[in-house]
Amino acid sequence: MINNLYKDLVVIGGNVSGLAAASQAKRVDPSLDIIVLESGGYVSYGSCGMPYFISGLIEKIYDLFTYPPSFFEEKRNIKILLNHKVMSINPFKKEILFSSKVLGALKYDKLIICSGASPIVLNIPGINAKNVFNFRNIPDAINLKGFIKAQNPKYATVIGGGSVGVLLAEALNKIGIKVTIIETAKKIFKDYEDEISSILISKIKSSQISILTDTRINSVQENKTTGLAFLINATNTKDGISEQVEIETDLILLAAGIEANTDFTWNSSIEIGEKKAIKVNSKQQTSYANIYAAGDCCLVKNLLTNKYDFIPTANNAIKTGRIAGGNAAGGDENFAGSLGTKADKIFGLEIARTGIGLENALDFRFNAFKITDSYQSHIKAIPGSDAITITTITDKNSKRLLGAQMIGKECVGKRIDILAAAISREMTVNEIYMLDLSYAPEISTVLDPVNRICAKASLEIQKMKF
Known about the structure:
With 466 residues, this protein is α/β, with parallel strands linked by helices. The protein has helices at 16-28, 50-55, 69-75, 138-151, 163-174, 194-206, 314-328, 358-363, 412-424, 429-433, 449-463, and strands at 2-12, 34-37, 79-81, 85-90, 95-99, 103-113, 117-119, 132-134, 155-159, 178-182, 210-212, 215-222, 229-238, 241-248, 251-254, 258-260, 291-293, 300-301, 308-309, 342-346, 349-355, 368-376, 387-395, 401-408. The protein is globular and about 65 Å long. The N and C termini lie far apart (70 Å).
């Protein structure tokens, strides 16, 4: 066992938030002795790009890497230890225990936890068959790609109908594999309003992907000789009537959601919230002033509800990492919060959202309503113009925009960013309507769809009787 090691700052986790934290700490105080412990064999990569490695759009897995470990050691004087898994934290001794080839103990002055998130473990008989894969990190992507190349599967089942599951389904579809998506909820992309998600669902189904919603998996049948799963037994409910269904499969992908990777903190008395995520304040401090947390392993303040939620996005990981690192080094920064802004491109459609949906708005006692309309992406006379469908959630009392969602072939992601900025600044729908947005025939319409939907929301409020 290795003992008596001491560092000014220890960072647990070597991906986006961890390296952002370590790098910012060095900028604030270059004299700090910093070490990063990474449980896996890779650091500094973009996991969001992994589905494109499966489809072949990204040819080499190493194209997903930003920097090698040597960059941080040579250019930023940050020590990185790969394959070092943290087992426990003792806040009173200011000590962590880790496991690599041997057990070790490491003392710290400040600690930043950036351990990320892990796939939710499904308790289903047969789910540990050889052809069942998680899809969270680089080894997962390499293993899946290798299996596809070696086994040439014809049928795949994706468990989970969120962004990762649907992007994986698209990737497999593009390489000729027939895909079925299984979702326990009543629809896939359940964070979106029906007016938006229904357009995406129609596109997915037209691409020959089967979708089973309101479906629970009972068991996975495994060939005892090969160790491979070949049949899924499930219960599908439709119109209140349940029936047993069987899905033939050569490959199963687990994308049923994630939860914070914080099991090693359970005996530390660090406060934990929903999805096992660590509770933090605006400075990213945990319940111990010298221990910080950032990225997917911690909760994030929702700018609209002021509630701390589990909002695991890459942007939040970088921002919270930098704030945690800077503050651990003596800075005094605050993370204002997040709107959960996100975008995806699936089968040629951009789909994006920001803020809260109608149900959530009503739960938090906003006097909210929603409207939906479609507009052209640019003027019809220019070839390529296509519909953008937008849904907005507005508070009748304050006239503030609370949330927006949209879908279309082009310029959706950047338009949602305008609305994210507007919500952050607590703008009313009339103020957004009056924004001076750019126009050119190949780029937009007169007025831009963002102006138009907010003008419509403003008119709706004027017609309402309170």
